[in-house]
Structure formats: structure tokens, C-alpha cells
Design a protein that fits this description.
- This protein is mainly α.
- It folds into 2 domains: about 5-80, Orthogonal Bundle (Helix Hairpins); about 100-223, Pectate Lyase C-like (3 Solenoid), CATH 2.160.20.
- It is about 25% helix and about 0% strand.
- It has helices spanning about 5-10, 20-35, 45-70, 75-80, 85-90, and strands at about 195-200, 200.
- The chain has a two-stranded antiparallel sheet.
- Strand 1 and strand 2 form a beta hairpin.
- Helix 1 (about 5-10) crosses helix 3 (about 45-70) and helix 2 (about 20-35) runs antiparallel to helix 3 (about 45-70).
- It is globular.
Length: about 220
């Protein structure tokens, strides 16, 4: 089995699946295998979940990079040896729909009120950027640098912020319902008025999150 076929199999997809299908499969599998859903005292399942997430992340990153870079001879050969490629594979991506390049430095940029829903911003440098009121629902922001960024009133519903740098970020009145902040660094961040609960139920994943000195939604400082 080739590496490419293995990546599709890890995501439980057929070879040739579209980028949209890859992203959706990734979200579904991360939800199923997130360690927060596994009993903490079951070390065997905890380790299995960690291994699964590692494989899922690798598969998605490899397939995403293949599908977002320009066509190569190898890719053309692969498509011609498989019958009936989907129309989405044959059409080039629209320039307006492409997220910023992987290594783009977007520090200090103004994205206030921008619609970035479902975009892939993983690993980007958005430190001190203005994202106030932006729609970031279902956006991938794994290991993104948002240090000092203005995210006030931003919609981060179900956003993936695993291992994100959110030090001193302004998250006042932001919607964090369903967001995954596992392993994120929120030291000194301001979450005053942020939505993280429904009644008494916490609806944000905070496994391993560093909240030292952060201002919590109720105005208290996390010790």
C-alpha cells in the first residue's frame, strides 16, 4: 500500500476524495478520538486516542498539501489511472477561495468582520492581527500564532485551536461554544464576557490549556 492510499484509509475515505471531504472526515474523526472523550483512568484508550489523532493529523496535512499545490506530473498520472475523477478535482480552485499560504506572515493584518469560516489557518502567524467580529466558525487553527490578536466578538464556534498561541489575546465577548482549545496557551488573555457555557455546562475543550493570569468570562483572574 502506498503512503497516499494509507492516508486516505486513515481518514476512512476512498482514493481521490475532494479536499472538502478530507476536511470533513478529519473533523469527524477528531471529534470521535479526542482524548477529552476518553475516560482519564483508561490509559490504554488514552494512548490509542493519542496515536489515532497523530495519524489523522498527518493524513490530513499530507492530503491537504497535495491538493492545494499546483498539479505535478505525478499527480496527473495518478488521476489518469483512476476512472472518473470528480468534477471538483478537475476544476482549479478559485483564487478568492484559497486560504493564505502556509508560511504567510499575517501579523498585524486587518481581518475585522471577515468571513473565514472553514478556512485552514493552521500554523499561520496572526499575532496582533485584528479579527474582531470575524466569522471563524469551523476554522482550522492548529498551532496558529494569535498572540496579542484582537478576537473580540469573533465567532469561534467549533473552531480547532489545538496548541494555539493566544497569549494576551483579546477574546472579549467572543463565541467559543464548541471550540477546541486543548493545549492552547491563553496566558494573560482577556475572555471577559466570552461564551463558553450553556447553563452550567462547559462547552469548550480545555484539556491541557494554560490559563495562568487569564481574565475569565466572569471577570475573575485565573490563578
Amino acid at each position: 500500500m502506498s503512503d497516499l492510499e494509507r492516508y486516505y484509509r486513515v481518514l476512512e475515505l476512498e482514493p481521490g476524495a475532494t479536499l472538502e471531504e478530507v476536511n470533513q472526515a478529519y473533523k469527524d474523526l477528531v471529534f470521535v478520538w479526542h482524548p477529552d472523550r476518553i475516560p482519564k483512568d483508561n490509559l490504554r484508550l488514552q494512548q490509542k486516542a493519542q496515536d489515532k489523532l497523530k495519524a489523522i493529523n498527518e493524513a490530513r496535512e499530507k492530503l491537504r498539501s497535495l491538493k492545494t499545490k499546483p498539479q505535478t506530473t505525478h499527480q496527473t498520472t495518478y488521476q489518469t489511472t483512476h476512472n472518473s475523477p470528480s468534477p471538483q478535482q478537475e476544476k482549479p480552485s478559485q483564487p478568492t477561495q484559497k486560504p493564505p499560504k502556509q508560511n504567510s506572515d499575517l501579523s498585524g493584518k486587518d481581518y475585522s468582520r471577515a468571513n473565514l469560516s472553514n478556512k485552514d489557518l493552521s500554523g499561520r502567524n496572526l499575532s496582533y492581527a485584528n479579527l474582531s467580529g470575524a466569522n471563524l466558525s469551523d476554522t482550522f487553527m492548529h498551532k496558529v500564532n494569535l498572540r496579542g490578536a484582537n478576537l473580540s466578538e469573533a465567532n469561534l464556534f467549533r473552531a480547532n485551536l489545538l496548541l494555539a498561541d493566544l497569549r494576551e489575546a483579546n477574546l472579549r465577548a467572543a463565541n467559543l461554544i464548541g471550540a477546541d482549545l486543548s493545549g492552547a496557551d491563553l496566558r494573560g488573555a482577556d475572555l471577559t464576557g466570552a461564551r463558553i457555557r450553556s447553563g452550567e455546562r462547559l462547552l469548550v475543550k480545555l484539556v491541557g490549556t494554560n490559563l495562568a493570569g487569564a481574565i475569565m468570562p466572569d471577570g475573575s483572574i485565573y490563578q
